[in-house]
Design goal:
The complex is a heterotrimer of chains A (248), B (274) and C (259). With 248 residues, chain A is mainly α. Chain A has 2 domains: 27 residues; 207 residues, MetI-like (MetI-like fold, Orthogonal Bundle), CATH 1.10.3720. Chain A contains 10 helices and no strands. In chain A, helix 5 packs across helix 6. Chain A is elongated. Chain A starts with a helix and ends in a 6-residue tail after the last helix. Chain B has 274 residues and is α/β, with parallel strands linked by helices. Chain B is globular and about 50 Å long. Chain B contains 7 helices and 11 strands. Chain B has 2 domains: 183 residues, Rossmann fold, CATH 3.40.50.300; 67 residues, no CATH class. Chain C folds into 2 domains: 36 residues; 220 residues, MetI-like fold. In chain C, 81% of the residues lie in helices and 0% in strands. In chain C, helix 8 runs antiparallel to helix 9. Classes of the chains: A mainly alpha (248), B alpha/beta (274), C mainly alpha (259). The interface between A and C is large, with 59 and 62 residues.
Chain lengths: 248, 274, 259
């Protein structure tokens, strides 16, 4: 229902009333026509392989960066949350780097890493990494003290506590963090692609912008919105599967 | 009758944050618990009973005095024996690992300590669970069970570890009164089988008298031993004892002492620390 | 203060950072390919000292800060009421939330090209993108806050004879205030990230140079210590601004400490 109102308002503002501030924005009909056009005017539509090529590049980068962030971020978060000594050495360092916006790593990333893909993936990784570490850390800290005490009574060795208490206990928070990290990955990725990429949805949008192909811009934006939403949902579903014990 | 788990609590004191707010939680507590005795400590909220339990369990240290278990020092100022299976604790809000099955929860102690091979531990666990009327739930997660069932599983978990002392921290507090009375009988049944030393804390006087060999009434903060009452009701006990003459006499004896403390705690508005 | 100096945590933290800087210095000396263009710590330090004494640096800070504040304030001013509306009115939510949720995942950066076409000046473009970033965050947090208000408080108020309006002002709003401030703090942190991005993308042809633009120009011009200086400055600014909001929020919700 709300969609209808939004579309109606869009249509109204651009096609009917021709509100001047919106004059460069095409009405929804134009966008849809282009999007589903077998012979798209500007070269990109559901029917062109170029569209899917852009999507594939973006997806590859986003998911690769995300995977790296998880592989590195979760263990680090657990270590910081669980081991006080390690936390005292490592956490200040993490907290110094964390506020630096992922985007601002772009120039440095380009200078440090070879090729065109690694810098974009690195920037995306940074965004997902810090969110993951923080949420994992919070997850470990949120585990009720009683569980640790029970483990002590039961004669758990430190390794057992890590495996059977810390990791499973932190999982709910970790997965919340992963959903957030996934969302952030997409945000960072788009920015990175706009600035430094060739191919990918961010690049597609920027390219369309520079050639004033506005329907394509909107296509790109909406595709991104959908992919971002879908990716987060994927993480959420995975989490629900892995934590079958959360039946209540 | 268990020969182990005798506790000698001598002049134990506990002060939190001595340089700062200086809260005296326990003051000069002395108590002897015989091996196999069911000892219940009653007192108002904030009186320090949980602190005492934590000290015996090894989660916390004391600032003065000492506790000896079976002729070896358990804890003294500056020295603390880490928590272990010899002093199993059953927690107030339950500490069954929600992410593991009932079977895993019950068998994890002996298996991870290396005392029993997994197959044998599981067989023993199934027996014990069946013995308490919980057959068939081994594969379920704690989240799927009722709170009464979870408590029973936690008791089984504790007993599987063959402790010298069983420490129960208001374990039935979160249950409704009806479930609680059934759990009392259930606990006594288990106790009669193994006769382990039990250290049970609660704020419920009725519960205390029903379960105990001896009831220890504590004062409000700073916690001291106010009165010790020997409960000479015969075992095995069931709910009908609650209306017997002897029970009424014991309750009367204890009530005056504890009501006075309850009033004091009410007036000062103590908040629980531990 | 003395307690702090004696605390091991502090020294370990310093130690960790010192170790990192030492490794960096060593890697620079060894001329590792990875760090070919990255300056050694002592070079960087000298550059930073020099930069913060220039007029250009501080005017860049002010320019970026101004954009952040304007976009943020508008985002909060619109976001809080709409978030509350979503939470309180099922009708309103049913109508407009789906659209909102579809637009929300769109990265702020992706709005930039569209915004450039929409707004006459670059300044407005940047501010509008910042607005979007803070707006979505605030709404989501406020909505979450409203939805998790303990129903018992609401019921208690109604049973004491409160009108719907009174329940809203005296119960729902205060109960939601922690979430409102959390949303505001998170959004503030976000806006600094967005301002960088927005400035980087639109730095060609915009009149005034904010920190993000300065960083990009430093990159293009090959003045690498300046890049890092800008990066760290932005991070610091984001930290300080959100810390400020956190403090305001903590003060406004002091009752939380006691609950």
């Amino acid at each position: 229902m709300g969609f209808a109102i939004f579309l109606a308002a869009w249509h109204l503002a651009t096609a009917v009333l021709k509100v001047p501030i919106f004059q460069k924005i095409p009405p929804p009909a134009v966008v849809l026509r282009e999007w589903f056009n077998p012979e798209p005017f500007f070269g990109v539509s559901v029917y062109t392989s170029l569209y899917y090529s852009h999507i594939a590049y973006s997806v590859y980068r986003a998911y690769t960066a995300f995977a790296l962030a998880v592989l590195l971020g979760v263990p680090l978060g657990i270590l910081i949350g669980w081991n006080r000594t390690f936390k005292e050495y490592a956490f200040p360092l993490v907290e110094i780097f964390r506020p630096i916006p992922p985007l601002s790593w772009v120039p440095l990333a380009i200078l440090m890493l070879p090729g065109t893909e690694p810098p974009v993936i690195f920037v995306t990784f940074i965004a997902a990494f810090f969110a993951t570490v923080l949420n994992t850390l919070l997850g470990v800290q949120s585990i009720d003290r009683s569980y640790f005490r029970a483990a002590q009574c039961l004669g758990f060795a430190r390794r057992d506590i890590l495996l059977h208490v810390v990791i499973p206990g932190a999982m709910p928070h970790v997965f919340t963090g992963l959903q957030i990290a996934m969302g952030l990955s997409w945000v960072a990725l788009v920015a990175g692609e706009m600035i430094a990429g060739k191919r990918g949805l961010g690049y597609m949008i920027y390219d369309a912008y520079s050639m004033v192909q506005i329907p394509t811009i909107i296509m790109g934006m909406l595709t991104l919105g959908f992919l971002g939403f879908f990716s987060s949902a994927l993480v959420r579903v995975l989490g629900r599967r892995l934590m079958a014990w959360r039946s209540y | 009758m268990s020969l182990y788990g005798g506790l000698r609590i001598r002049n134990v004191g506990k002060v939190y944050d001595p340089e700062g707010i200086h809260v005296v939680a326990l003051q000069d507590i002395s108590l002897d618990i015989a091996p196999g005795e069911f000892c219940v400590v009653v007192g108002p909220s904030g009186c320090g009973k949980t602190t005492l339990l934590n000290i015996i369990a090894g989660f916390d240290t004391l600032t003065s005095g000492e506790i000896v278990m079976d002729a070896s020092t358990l804890t003294a100022p500056g020295k603390r024996l880490s928590p272990g299976a010899d002093r199993m604790v059953v927690f107030q809000h339950g500490a069954l690992f929600p992410w593991k099955t009932v079977l895993w929860n019950v068998t994890c102690g002996p298996v991870l300590q290396g005392r029993l091979p997994r197959a044998e531990a599981e067989a023993q666990a199934r027996d014990l669970l069946a013995g308490t009327g919980l057959a068939g739930i081994e594969g379920q997660y704690p989240g799927e069970l009722s709170s009464g069932m979870r408590r029973r599983v936690e008791l089984v978990r504790a007993l599987m570890n063959d402790p010298k002392v069983l420490l129960l921290d208001e374990p039935f507090r979160a249950l409704d009164a009806l479930t609680r009375s059934v759990m009392h009988e259930h606990l006594l049944k288990l106790y009669d089988l193994a006769r382990k030393t039990v250290f049970f804390i609660t704020h419920d006087l009725e519960e205390a008298i029903f379960l105990a060999d001896r009831v220890v009434v504590m004062t409000t903060r700073p916690g001291r031993v106010k009165k010790v009452i020997r409960v000479d009701l015969p075992r095995p006990r069931d709910y009908r004892i609650l209306t017997s003459l002897r029970y009424g006499q014991l309750e009367e004896e204890a009530l005056e002492a504890i009501h006075e403390e309850a009033l004091k705690a009410f007036e000062t508005g103590e908040r629980e620390l531990a | 203060m003395l307690r702090m100096v004696r605390s091991t945590a502090l020294w370990r933290g310093v130690g960790g950072i010192a170790l990192f800087i030492a490794l960096w210095e060593a890697a620079s000396l060894l001329k590792l390919p990875f760090l070919r263009f990255v300056p050694a710590p002592h070079v960087l330090f000298a550059s930073v000292v020099e930069t913060i004494q220039t007029q250009a640096y501080w005017s860049a800070v002010v320019i970026s800060a101004r954009r952040v504040v304007i976009g943020y304030v508008i985002g909060v001013a619109l976001g809080v009421p709409i978030g509350l509306a979503f939470g309180v009115s099922r009708v309103f939510k049913g109508l407009f939330f789906p659209v909102f949720e579809t637009l929300r995942p769109i990265p702020p950066l992706a709005w930039v090209p569209l915004s450039i076409l929409l707004w006459p000046t670059m300044e407005q473009t940047v501010i509008s993108v910042i607005f979007l970033g803070s707006y979505f965050t605030v709404v989501i947090n406020v909505l979450g806050g409203v939805e998790t208000v303990d129903l018992r408080y609401v019921r208690a108020a109604f049973s004491m004879g409160a009108s719907r309006w009174q329940v809203f002002w005296r119960v729902v709003l205060p109960a939601t205030s922690p979430s409102i401030f959390t949303g505001m703090a998170v959004a503030m942190g976000l806006t600094w990230e967005i301002v960088v991005a927005a400035e980087m993308v639109s730095s060609i042809g915009s009149g005034q140079t904010g920190l993000g633009a300065m960083m990009w120009q430093a990159y293009v011009g090959g003045v690498i210590p300046l890049i890092i200086t800008a990066m760290v400055s932005i991070g610091l600014a984001g930290l300080l601004f959100s810390a400020l909001i956190w403090q305001i929020g903590a003060f406004a919700t002091r009752w939380r400490r006691l609950v």
